[in-house]
Amino acid sequence: MRLWSTLERGPVEIPPPGEKKTVGMYVCGPTVYDYIHIGNARPLIVFDALRRYLESRGYEIVYVVNITDIDDKIINRAAEEGSSPEEIAERFTREYLEDLGALGAKPPTYQPRARAYVDKMIELIGELVAKGNAYVADGDVYFAVRSFPGYGKLSGKDLDDLRAGSRVEPEEKKRDPLDFALWKAAKPGEPRWPSPWGPGRPGWHTECVVMARELLGETLDIHAGGSDLVFPHHENEIAQAEAVSGKPFARIWLHNGMLTVRGEKMAKSLGNFAYARDVVRLFGTEAVRYFYLSRHWRKPLDFSPEALEEARKAVEGVYRFLAEAELAAEGNENAALPEKLAGELKLREEKFHEELEDDFNTPGALAALQGMVNAGKRFAAEEGDRRALRAIAGKVRELAAPLGLFQEERAPSLSGKTEELIGLLVELRNGLRREGNFQLADRIREKLSALGIELKDTPHGTIWTLK
RNA sequence: GGCGGCGUAGCCAAGCGGUUAAGGCGAGGGACUGCAAAUCCCUUAUUCCCCGGUUCGAAUCCGGGCGCCGCCUCCA
Asked: Could you write out the three-class secondary structure of A80-93?
């Protein structure tokens, strides 16, 4: 399998499963100062799907998504609410975990929190100071970017260009404006940990390095996150990790494209965001997942209610096929697949895997899945043989499982008594229809429709569904 | 200004040197129906932002435009 890596600026081959015992995968998770917005959900869905696809192909994945629970934004929010940073972090960690579940993500192997690793961070900073890659200035510790020759290799930036166009305000304490804080001295009222440089807290760029090293070793197989993290966050991680270990920090760097709104990046600071939980509540987990997976993970994707609605309908269509196929084929589970159909099915299945093996092209894979559904429908229409449909339905479900799609058994049903009641109404209405009393028959249909119960008169009788 | 990406049907979106240019949504036509709804079937890009070039052959490669976006500051 090939994945396009930011560092190589091109595709990198992942060694086949079995050649290596486990694959370590690290994704930059949220800062817990508020509910996550739907843009934050993109890496959580896309890399969850990638992880599960790799697992389905025989890889053993150790999947880490960190939780940043030390940060300026948390401190600010606490001040606004008259609460403590600990309380804010605790609360939004809980909310985040709930949202992660609602997005249909498989729980990560580890979900480390920065607060639990402060000691290790102090150790790492100490090493950097000892090696001459970092310096102490008035209770702060800064990483000296000029001390790391590879600085800029991930983002393709040149130190001198950066300085020329720099929007960074030079800080007195820094030797170079691009140096970044490893340790920040505590201001009055701020959370603090004791350190050799005085009380303070770690800078953001250090936590991922430390947690990744602790849980996955010095070199990660895959490091992933949003494309807005390439610079400076991931660049700074590389500098710290590699300055200490002398080994590559990660083999493959994956960066998902941004979610946009009318072409502009969704961001809390721009105010153009929607909370993930609200979008999931409105459109459902699978519509959100389908929405993301119907666009290649590296490209920007534009958010709109219409786009989500479109995804919801596409998901709906597949479920309609699955329900029909599984119903029609009941009792014919072992019916042999006609040769013609088997061939087409096989072709689509190969296509599905080819697409995913090639830079995890989920839109292509979804198209292959839709193609299978269409092949099934066409076959049933042409040959009048519906028995074969069950095999297709099974294949679709099997292939879609790692993507977190099409695993629901069926639409939620009503209680037995209610169903009997609807059955009674349907029977009465059909009596009226036979007598030609369409006026009353239509009224019953309309009233039920208003209650969310849709009646359909088919040649074989009337069936009903929930809207 | 520097670095990176994108521009494919009404909309969304794959394809990245030879395919009938995937797939979804929408739209149009048909079947079914008392009328509907739903469903099913069929149709829907001689052409890939523009202009040159390379090639037997380009949406795909190269050069030059035009337009849009991201990063360079916290950010998934």
From this structure: HHCCCHHHHHHHHH
pLDDT number for residue A320:
86
Q: In Å, what is the separation between the CA of A263 and the C1' of B67?
A: 13
Predicted complex ipTM exceeds 0.90:
yes
Each domain of chain A, given as residue ranges in start order, spans: 2-256, 305-403, 416-466
Whole-number distance in Å between A313 CA and B25 C1'? 8
Residue found by looking up tokens 């269509």 in the block? A317
Does the CB of A30 fall within 7 Å of any strand B atom?
Answer: yes
Query: Quick one: A2-256 is in which CATH superfamily?
Result: HUPs (3.40.50.620)
Cβ-based contacts (< 7 Å) between A 389-448 and strand B: 433, 438, 441-442, 445
Give the CA A231 to C1' B66 distance in Å: 29
The number of angstroms, rounded, from the C-alpha of A239 to the middle of its chain's C-alpha atoms is: 27
CB A120 within 8 A of CB A241: no
A158 touches strand B (CB under 7 A): yes
CA torsion through residues A224, A162, A145, A171, sign:
negative
Q: How far apart are CA A298 and CA A300, in angstroms?
A: 7
Q: CA dist A163 to A69, A157, A159, A204, Å?
A: 31, 10, 6, 22
Q: Report, as an integer, the average pLDDT of A425-438.
A: 88
Distance between CA atoms of residues A467 and A376, nearest Å: 25
Residue among A299, A302, A292 at smallest CA distance from A359: A299
CATH class of the domain comprising A305-403: mainly alpha
Q: What is the pTM (predicted TM-score) of this model? A: 0.89
